[in-house]
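Notebook B, p. 112. Complex prediction, attempt 2.
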Amino acid sequence: MDNKPLILTVAVLGGTGKEGKGLAYRWAKAGYQVLIGSRSPEKAITASAEIIGLLEGSGSVVGMSNPQAAQQANIVVLTVPYAAHRETLESVKDVLKGKILVDVTSLSVPPMVTKVQMLPAGSATQEAREIVGEGVEVVAAFQSISHKHLLTDEDVDCDVLVTGTSKDARAEVLKLVEAAGLIGWDAGPIENSVVVEGLASVLRYINKQYGSTHSGIRITGVSRNS
Amino acid sequence: MDNKPLILTVAVLGGTGKEGKGLAYRWAKAGYQVLIGSRSPEKAITASAEIIGLLEGSGSVVGMSNPQAAQQANIVVLTVPYAAHRETLESVKDVLKGKILVDVTSLSVPPMVTKVQMLPAGSATQEAREIVGEGVEVVAAFQSISHKHLLTDEDVDCDVLVTGTSKDARAEVLKLVEAAGLIGWDAGPIENSVVVEGLASVLRYINKQYGSTHSGIRITGVSRNS
């Protein structure tokens, strides 16, 4: 549909956490250049060494500070807990212009992790857009993916809903979803992010209620090849 | 888990609409006494005759005004468009005490039917709770079920997420879900209704985007028999 060159460099901010490491592993394996960002460059370097170990030699993963990683990447993926959301965005916003920011954060403040919490902006992703300002495409994705399956090569039985500021940006992020071995869906404008993020709380509730650790969703009634 | 008698009388307010008729048909077929409510008792009587026709003789469906239906039922299901939400609730709130109100409404005001819209209360279901006041259990469910399949005996390839003010009320509504031939999940407290309702907008977006008329969701990673 579009003839843009494949975007090759992805920064994973907060990439020393479980979710970030899992996504970084999958993308490095798919051939992306991956930059792990952290507040602590030392921790980022340790995490990237871990991921390289799992990759058995093939794949490029480099650790550095969050701003350095964001500066060098085409797509910047934010995987920090909500408590570090604003601070991390403030630390990188000057280098995000013209890029795509993928926000994996959902507002989940313990102990209320199974109850949807609302922000004045609506969702964490909409709050991110307010923080980074104009000129950055902001997309929500990957909130409900169980990190346990990402670091192995297991199939992940959960679709990824992708919402965000433009259809082109969502299409780019859908390529990242596919590269991670997952099935993704364009789920509409950034206003729909409240559903994408809130679903993570609902699935945690279902996990607790029905004794699972990795409930997810599948979209039905639509051809997966369209 | 509980020894309450099976609740047998269900009122479907706005039951002359497609969604309401579909649910009424399924519940009458399952042996519930169904009361169709409408602002126009004449239209309610016509709709109930239609449903009785489909049932081929077995099943009890009676048409009447919304307040009469709400008065006589144990569970009251609201299937009106959002534009009639407040007015319908005001017309029945005096007879709801001690009952369960199931809100099928989601905030979807044309032409923005594929974009999640927020209310000061959060969701339509939370707004309903504000209107009906204390002493009524308020539950959200069935927003994303395509009415096209309900009036036939087709399998519906979409799970039902049930959120609401108490676990007992959600359990009662899960019985109605099952009676309608659907698979339901306790999806947590009423604050989670924003996800259940917003999902309807997201699925309409996916329908439009991927050329479907009946996209839905399935919960994965949890045993369906638990």
